[in-house]
Amino acid sequence: MTHQQKTNIIKKEIIASYKTLKAKYPVLRYQNFIGFSIFISCLLFSAGLGYLWYVDMIPAWALILGNAFLFGVLHELEHDLIHFIYFKNNRIVHNIMLLFVWLVRPLTLNPWFRRVLHYHHHKFSGTPHDVEERGVTNGEKWSLKRLLFTPDLVIGNLLRVVGLFSDIKREVDKGNLKFQTAKKLKLSGVFGLIPFTILSHVILYVFFTDIFLDFLHDKYQLNWVMPDAIKNILTWCNPIIYIVLLPNLLRQFCLHFITSNLHYFGDVEQGNVIEQTQVLTVWWTYPFQLFCFFFGWTHAIHHFVVNETFYIRHIAHKKAHEIMRKHGVRFNDLGTFRRANRYHEI
């Protein structure tokens, strides 16, 4: 069979398994209600953890781990919203949800701009102009630099923007990408960072610099410390840093580590969904998976059946994995770390 025939079979069988699941549990058909309930529950639990930390009832590490998990769930919810899965016919509620899942995850791109990059990702996954995945280190050789900048969308993208834009221009010159599409991708990538993403990253840069300088001062008596004015601003920002930014830094590192290594890059046959992703379920990825709601288990399923909720993917993932494995989708291809995410051996 051709890859397209295999893809059609995988898609058909997974959709059939979803229909069987929903027939067995009719409540799953109320996706707007379920999606909104998850949205409100995560926000309330996150606020509750923040309050408990603020009044010294739980330690900072518990707050960071708890909110990192909750924000991982909200990332999946945002992903569904980007595909208009909830409240498609009620744009007010839809956009309110999209706004709040961004505000509590401000290290990531503006979701309205990200929608442009994400739709392009589905159409051209693994190509040199797959801006969304390249922005999270996909396709780069593993090194200390890649590890350090895995969660970073500001400095990390500044370091790769020249190469990325050169590759986009080359693809336009070859006729593989329309000029207007290239322009739209560039603008979406840049404006998607403004203002919250850049501001949130800057706060974290200053926060960690302050910690490092205090360490040097205490350990080696080096007289390098932050000015009192900046320290006062950091003190004022402490609730935002601990309740929102640090959990998101952990969540974003875990998500980017998983997604950049389950997507293939560079030698993917365009339109061949089987070559776009693999399934990552190997045991040592579990700590990473926990804070991106087991993205490695389910995202490959999404590439075959796009317009389905994340919780259905999770509930039905075992059957989907069985179908995908039978038709050649890769599982736990750890060679991708050595091959800089290429599908084939280099």
Automatic annotation (TrEMBL):
Q: Does the keyword tRNA processing apply?
A: no
Residues of the signal sequence? none
Q: Name one Pfam family in it.
A: FA_desaturase
All copies of domain Fatty acid desaturase, residue ranges: 60-333
Membrane-spanning parts: 33-52, 96-113, 187-213, 233-250
Q: Which domain of life is it from?
A: Bacteria
Which keywords are on file for this protein?
Membrane, Transmembrane, Transmembrane helix
Q: What is this protein called?
A: Fatty acid desaturase
